Hints:
44 helices, 5-stranded mixed beta sheet, alpha+beta, 9-stranded antiparallel beta sheet
Amino acid sequence: MVSTNLVVPVVLWGPTAPTHCISSVFLSDDQFTLVTGCYDGQICLWQVEPTTLKMSPRCLLVGHSAPVLCLVRASLLPENNFLVSSSENGEMCTWDLTDGKCMEAVKLPQVHTQIQSYHTANSEDVRLFCIGYYAEIMVMDPFSLEVIYVLSSKVKPDWISAIHVLRPMRRKDDVVLAITTTGTVKVWTLTGNENKHAEPIYENESKEIRCLNAITMNCCAQNQRTVLLVCTKYWQIYDAGDFTVLCSVIAPARERWQGGDFITSDRVMLWTDEGKGYLYKLPANCIPDNKEFHSKSVVRDAPYLYYVLQHAGDKVLSCPPAMKLLQGTGGQHNLLRGDSEGYISVWNVPEVPLDNISILQAKQMPPRVLKPHVCTSLVEAWSIMDPPPVGILDQLSRITESPVKLTSSIYLPQQSRLVIGREDGSIVIVPATQTVMMQLLVGIKQNFSDWPSHQILYGHRGRVNCLLCPSMIHSRYEKSHLLSGGIDFAVCLWDLYSGSLLHRFCVHAGEITQLLVPPESCSPRILKCICSVASDHSVTLVSLQERKCVTLASRHLFPVVTIKWRPLDDFLIVGCSDGSVYVWQMETGHLDRVLHGMLAEEVLSACDEQAEDGGSGGGGGSGSNGASASEMGMANPAVHFFRGLKSRNMNAIRHATQRGINQLQQLQGHNQGNFDFLMKHRSNPLVIQGLRTNPKDAESHILFFDIEGLIFELHSEEYAQMTPATLESLGVHLQNPKDGKSMHLDASKKIGDFFSKVKNKAVDVEKILKDKDKHGLVQKFKEKTEIVEKKVQAKVESLQKAVEPHEEQQDLKSKIASKMEVTHVMEVAQLLLSLLHSWGLDPHLDKMCETRLGLLRPIVPISYGVLSKAGYMSLLLPTWQNNYAIPPGIQLPSSSKKRPLPEELQRLEHLTAVFTSRLHWELSTTLTTNHILALVAMSNTLLSMSAASFLPDSEKHKKLQRLAQRTDSMLSNEEEREELMAHHVSQIKHAWSLLATHHCFLLPDKIEALEPKKFKRPQVEMMVKRWQHHCIEIREAAQQILLGELTRMGKKGRKQLVESWAQYLPLYTHTEPIVGAQQQLALISQPASGGSASGSGGNGGGVGTAVSAGGGSGTGVGGNVSGGDAHQDEDYEEEEEEIIRKPSSLSELKRKQTTAVILLGVIGAEFGQDISQDSPNHRGSISLATGANLTSCVAGGERRKSSVVEGFGIANNLARLTSMALAHLLYAPPSPKLPQYTPLRRAAIDLLGRGFTVWEPYLDVSKVLLGLLEISCEGKAVPNLNYKLPLTPQADACRTARHALRLIATARPAAFITTMAREVARYNTMQQNAQSINTPLTQSVLHKAKGEILQCVEMLIDKMQSEIAGLLVEVMDIALHCVDSNELKSRGLAELCPAICKFNQISHCAQTRRIAVGANSGNLAIYELRQNKCQMIPAHTHPITSLAFSPDGKYLVSYSCAENRLSFWQTSTGMFGLGQSQTRCTKGYSTAPIPDVSRLNPMRLAKLVWINNRTVTLMLADGSETRFNV
Length: 1526
């Protein structure tokens, strides 16, 4: 779910706000965004008005799994609005604040407690200086999150408790000041050329002072001569020169200092753990400008407290608040505080003149108190909202006075039902899509009698904590079983269908916190069990079959955190929160041992290893995995470890530990993608996931719409209903049947095979999903995902049944069980399109959507989300609307009833109208891109299906009735009915194509017209990454949108784009990649030049060696393909950011390079030549209306050949570099870096085809053609581009290559034919000296791709006869190479290549086995098929128009109309066919000249027909006939 799929999350927040216990705060430099991190790991973004500091929560970033300790800015540049967050378990993450997207995420073994982001002297942007639970200072790059270098200590190394980086005045270098926990102050001076490969960097000076466990250290910015150090008990001012104490203040009673900072050189602000701020004036001996500086402190001149900043009522806080002093605009300081109740308070720090302070000090007045200026919280923002944010079960809350909290949920995709556990112990089961539609969309009846039916199960006393439907995780369980665990210590087993309580297990002595399913390789008894975990630190295995507890593991001293399985050893391994690990035997319930420390960690990681590797080998049957597990057994120390465990041999264990750690790290990435393709693409169209940030919260619900899964379901549904003939037309080849019946069987077998492929891999997929789950999030999604195996099995069986003659077609439909029933899939599609469509921009389109397509309008603004790297998400909060002022003049949808609404509902209606039409598209570029992509892809999918609309059937009937009445006949005859249906269908299709065009091309201009400059454009980069997405609908949508966007930019915009990306184009020479100057950056970290620069390819220097014609042909097709592909796919779509920041890591550079190659390729191919003036709009209207590939217009030769535009002219180097990069991707042999079939290579093939006219001057044409043929002949029967289900990467590449060949052939027919003829000639010479070559000729491309070449030639003859007519001899050479000579002997040329025989200049004589071809030069080419040779005879001075052999083969007649001459030729052979055969002219006639008019079509100009062996008729185009005798 995380990698490449296009997923659109939508959130239903529900009426109660999420808990937000703040642990860190941050305000962006422009003061527009406030960021708060909380103890549950979420980060909330608040929109701030810089002047008043009023704020409203805008968006929640979900992803950290531990308290967020540090938030710092990642860049100085105002346009780079990025933030780095770091949590308590070592996770670090870089977020894009405008988008809320996670750009980069890592998990470090070190935990940071404090990060300072600082711009060092010689770096382009900031660096992060981090300290924490380790003895160094780590300096990191904020974008790649890699450690650049480390500052170490020589003297008394210890954890560092506070740090301050500064640049001394009048100096070029930076100084790092730090103090360790034991009170040693250290200073490092940075020269600017540090890196991690050099010697360790030690401190320049260090001194011990008495200050232990300092919290913060700040140097006064004004004069850099005093330092403020804060400890919990006191704060002190030090002289920065020699670090001597100048003054010290003890904390107020019952409070502790938390931090502090200088306001000016003579005043400081301190704050305490009670959340109060204290303002002090410093004594004279602490102020550097004062003459008293550094003198002995005097009693009467102590630091003076003149102001306290605090809240009115002193609420006791459960943990210290996060506080920060901010330097505001214009010298104004603000104190910012976020506390455990989720409140954010801001104080404007008062500026009190010195004189006033001195007067107060003299009078010994108590300090004054100041209240905060702004104070708000998430809960408050939620309460302002009226009506409150929608939840997923709001319909039920209308019965009770106060809503019942929802506490757990689980989604069953097969029946599309949602099971929800509530606070009061009831469990509600509702139809999922309908419930959601009800909350968000207009039109489903709001009165209670019409609610979709729901079921309520009563059985728990008190909150339901967790739900589990075991059959979703593994098919061995009963389909109807549902388990729930509650606060009442019970685990209940329910029957989902009848709603009855089957059994209640009361084993635990604490509330149930988790329910799990044991892995498949356990013993049979355990396989029937479910594992439950409770808050009394116990774990049980309860058997659903025996209805009793099998194992109770309960003597844990600390809460249970992780559960791992070791099925083959019968061990259940329980990890507790203190780091100890308990090993239990499952069958006997016996505690085997307890481990601590390193050993415990080792055991846990060993279980992961085993799950990753042996899991499917042991249980699921893919043999290769089993093997790899056993081989690994020897290398993997953790396995020894378990052997040690069994024999209780501690030495073995110790030994394993020493060997092990480094190997464990290497093995992590080892077992990715070896699973089949289709399976990978079968994902649930919709997953509903409960989101609870804190155990006490009510659940919010996220709907994940998987666009690809949805398209897959819609298409497979359609293909399942197709007749074999229709499938055949798509190019899904079925074998030749012997009789009609088997044809049907055949088809079903075909489809059966197709779906059984899906089935075989279900097992692997499960395993892979576990593999990928490095972050718990995936696991949560996956728990919801079905295993498809059973259903596919059903599908295949039903197909086989369906084929037996007596079964009806209707039956077939009902039998095929997909992931969801059809109606559910359609409902999901309806919901998705209704939520994403831009309602309100085009009233006419809206009306069509509502009446023809059955989309529904939203009734509330939708909270969207963005899913980014590693499962991190950002979710829009509903509270942004609190501060939003609705612009006047909003048009409301006319359909809404004119009943008077209460004011708040009116506001909501207006808000929704503004939101769908404008704000939705002004949120972020990522959202715009994903949503437009989803809309266009879905519209095109539904357009391609037969009459797909979402109207309920009753509506459809009414419609047809109405249409019928209009025609005044009650549907009397069939024809009229069919006509009506056709009309109806065409209306629906028209509406879909309008919907696609609207979002693809018109949307931006419409929004610009309403609100200029606000529209967030789709990101070019994201489209580029999907240029060759494996799901064809998404691929075509991305291509359309990208081309639309590029067209809209105009020449200037494209030129800028080209200039900014050109620097990332990887440079290749013919042999190996060169390293460009801007890539030196990457070389610091990787010495091998080849590897780094071939951002898209190759294995360094070896690239050029194997690029000969058959170079990388057969290698690597086996195992590494799919593995590589999965990896590449991820690489290819991982992150997208706006242009353009210097890449900060190698992988980012590679991503930039792949993007650059494709982007420049697209611009070059599509805009490299001016599009002809006469059809400015041809791309927009025509191609979209037909839904055809956009290239069809390109191929039509509507281009002028002036290549000066866009910097892709002949004189320009860019076209050369781009074409070389594309060609390199085509030739480069497969290598680990660039596997054989990747989307990148597919894109290169596609672009070589599209822009061939632009690239041609720089390419070796024959090499390109051979390369493409090589790829296109690998796949056997590959369906054509109209077949929309995903293909394997190999078949996809093959299909793309075929398409590219046809594009090249039509763009440059002459080049294609001559090049191919030259290659054929070379092949024939090689054939004659076959013994002198090493490789057998059958391996050569030309031999393998015969059929492919012939198809291309026939297509050219069909489309471009006039161009081909001039090259007939070459065409004949190619054709004779491609057809089988024996076939030719038995069946004749006319049957084998009917296309070629259309030409009158060609004749084949079967008796003498000769073929004659008349050339444009006037020569005759006569092929002797017996001897395999060809002789050329100069026959005419002008092109030959027509020729024909006589029926007995003795004579050949030829005619040239330009020369007005007709000649007879006779071939004489020597005695008995020995010696030279000679062809000579026996007779010649002059003919009457033809009037010029008829010279238009050379094909029909003249035809020669023999009447008998001696007489020939010349038939001219004007109908006249003349006879000639030999």
